[in-house]
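Support request, please re-run this one:
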Amino acid sequence: QEVGASWGEQVANRALTGLAVFLVLVVLFIWAYFREWKMSVAAIVALIHDIVITIGVYALSGFEVTPATVTGLLTILGFSLYDTVVVFDKVKENTRGITAGGLRTYGEATNLAVNQTLMRSINTGLVALLPVGGLLFIGAGLLGAGTLKDLGLVLFVGMGIGIISSIMFAAPVLTVLKDNEPKIKAHNARVLARRAAGGADVARGARAPRPDNMTPSDEVGAARSTRARP
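Re-run finished. Output below.
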């Protein structure tokens, strides 16, 4: 009772300091690795999303905030960042040189990267959640190890939210930021205009009357050549 308030204040201050240092290092690392500050912003937004939801669930549960809670919070941020970097690495691969004549918009290339890493993210997350779930539900619930519940709850909720945010939150935020760049905006407009022109050519070919000497097989071949036209 005598040292509770000072201990709580000390834990809170060290938690905020550790979180601030972690976020700064995250920004610098992603910026240096991807050479793209917008990816750093998207990753930080996803991390803040994870923090807010995890702290909200923890507050609703009424569990006591302990040093184990702070440790678990920093751990889930690292897990979320790891999955986000994997997705962004695939985005970088799919969008390399995209403005030089790519056939997809930036959003479509990003969506393709998410689809290509989706099963890997889900499998990795499930494998990580299984032992954490055992720590929370079996260790703290069935065996009554109360010291494990603080760490177990933060890890379980944070890892689950981290999987979702890296797939469904970080990538869309990056797409919104990149679509406002003049080069990306012009590229997206060219891709959409090319598709519209190709669709109009196909429609005109379908409406054109068939010559009397054209057989059905010749008509199919002409339609295929029209669709293949860039």
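The CA atoms of residues 138 and 144 lie 8 Å apart. The two ends are 76 Å apart (CA to CA).
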